[in-house]
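User: Quick sanity check before I run a bigger batch. Here is a single chain. Can you write out its predicted 3D structure?
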Amino acid sequence: MTTIRVLMSRLLDLLFSGRRERRLEEEIANHLDLLTQHYLAAGMAPADARRAAQREFGGVERIKEAYRDQRGLPLLDTLARDFGFAVRLMRRNPSFAVTAVLVLGIGIGVNNMLFTILNAHTIRGLPIPQSGRVFFISSVDAKGADRGISCADFEDIRTSTRQFAGIAAFRGMPMVVTGDGHAPERLDGAYATASAFTLLRIEPVHGRGFRESDDAAGAAPVALLSRNAWLARYGGDPSVLGRAVTINGAPSTIVGILPDASGFPGTAAIWMPLQQAPGIRTERRDARTLQVFGRLTERADAGEAGAEIAAIAERLANDHPDTNHNVRARAFPINERFLGSPTDPVWIAFMTIGFIVVLISCANVANLMIDRSVLRSRELAIRASVGGSRGRLLQQLLAESAAIAAAGTGVGLLVAIGGIRVFRSAIPGDALPYWLDYSVDWRVLAALIGVSVVTVLVFGLVPSIRASKSDVIAVLKDGGRSSTASRRHLWSTAFLAAQVALCVVLLAQLAVAVRTNDPGLPSDSILDTPTIVTATLTLPPAIYPSNAGRAGFYDSLMRRVRGVKAIEAAAFASTLPFTNGESKQMVIDGRRFEEARRSSMVISITPGYFDVLRLPLLQGRDFDDSDGGPGRENIIVNEMFAQEFFPEGGALGRRIAIGDAVPTDGATVPWLTIVGVSPTVRQRRATDSDPVVFVPWAAGAPATGALVVRSGLDTTSLVATLRQQVQAVDAAMPIFRARTLPQVRHDSDWVGRVSSRLLLFLTFIAVSLATVGLYAVTAHGVSQQRHEIGIRMALGARPVQIARRVLRHALVQGSIGFGAGIVCTALWASVFPSGDAELRATDAGSLAIVGAVLVAVVVIAAAVPMRRATRLDPLSTIRAE
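Assistant: Done. Predicted structure follows.
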């Protein structure tokens, strides 16, 4: 109890130290006054009485220190005084303080910016309460690829599981909203079971959620809106609840508004019960289109839950061998499904780059600290000579490092916030799901503080130890010049070499990126024209349930669009250039079954598609209106397809089977005949494109298609014209994502563009920091050698010889770092291979680029010190020494 009382008293003393100090002074003054009065009563003079009282009382300051040792926390008091002294030193030398704080702040800020990105993509997770108990369930095909769950399998799993408190499913699908007095609008939607929102613990902000009765066959259709969609379409009008609207051509009623960051694992802005999904009741068991998740019971174990799901899938495979043969299932955390893992090699390399920038900053500040310790060597020697222990000096020097780190942390937070804003602005607004939030949370702040604490040890420990080990007698004898300066040279060179070596790693990666930046396909420049405008349409399945109905709509629209005089050419495509495409299996006729099974992108197009793009076919002919019908099963392949699968030539007339028509060994199927070879068009951002098969639009008109138009009209006028023609065919049909083809490429290429710019930015920061470090070391070296330089110039050395000597010294230090950097780059390549065996960061071409950049860095860093060295006055320098 006494110990606790003493501890509380000491803690309170930290809060009320000023008041207790005043009470101490008052009490001492009272004691001295009483003793003085005693001596005055004995007949002594006032001055003599006061001196006698002071002698009898003892040393006032000694008594104060003894009292202070019994109160408060002495260690914290000492640290506070050391920290205050460090701040005063920084104010005395603002140029050093500002340089050190900015350099360290930039390194900490860049690292924290990268951690913020990592946190958003892999650590924070979906905003689901107890998300670790929510597991995603998927099927696994014979090739080990994850697929969805069929509706029939979902019902069997839901009724069979005991480890899950509930199982839910959803399917994403675009939805067209009309019939509410507003313009038709296409929204991202999802059909979900009623239990989905209960399992995710999502509460509506207005209205109600789904009930089990809403998800029953024959129930009246209802819908939920996201808060953003509610505000954008209805202006937040509360009377929208209960309002009848038309969704995908069917009447529905809005019953609730869900929060935006709800935790639902999808980007839907509107939801309907799963039983309202078109064709859901008649789907085959092998139509695996549902995404399924469940929440574990309180006592369930993740391993047991996974084993149970695997056992259910094995039973279904035995019960339904025609649809479930070799189909397995697995359950894993939902965050693992929708987010990456921080242990993935890509993310490890990503954060390693951040730590490289921090280490460069720390090495830079360490050199600054070493240089300052040389200037302060006499001060430290005097403090040691009057009784300061080495531990006490070390504590004070580390406190100075902590003060710099604290200021650098504040700067780093500002750098991180600014960097994140710039990074986010480079990403298209609709490219990321809502849960990828780059805000600063407690994890980001904890990482910021943790890195800042570590930096104190990295950049402050070695300089502090070196400074505290100074030979007091030697320093006082020579004034702190030569002996201390010579001892710092080894550590200064080591820190500088570390900076340059780490820069070499980043420069080598950038050199590889520059060398792999292919000039592009010939079609790229042809397609880079704003005269090609695209717009996407989604046909509601309730209104256009059949291929014939969809084909009729597209034919009618195409006739109207082509009839507009300002439109030069128009066509439809299931997938636009630069936006990937659907990959399907295929078999090449005339080859052994094992060799013939391959995969290729498959894109549906209407006749005239290549005319719109102004890419004439290389061989054969284009589609006509009869292609795709019975007896006209023809296709067009791109040049890459022909070169990869028919390197001997003669692709025209060859036959393949694709998609659902891929046969088992020995089966007969309807073959598709190649009638044309098109130029290769980039379908995704890569060095090369992919093999592509173009199939006639009439063979199966998709529900979603992209209208591609070439016109001399400006984009705004053309989009208005297209919207007018679409609504002339169907007044309830909206168009969305109306963009020029260059904008399509820009939006789809954001990952590669942002990644390359981020690497360039990080490399620029690293090189800039290394340049500052090299400049500081070179300038300090020139300052320390002023006497020697002055003698050389007095003996006849020309300015060019002095400049050459300074530059040679800087090049030697840079070369040491370059050699160490080659070793570090080789180590990086072994841990994080690029995947390109022909182009490596350590080959001659990459290292030549890095070497050229480093030479330029050395010249820039040494330019000012060289100028100062050549302008020294020999007489003044020698006299000053």
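The two ends are 66 Å apart (CA to CA).

User: Great, the batch can go ahead then.
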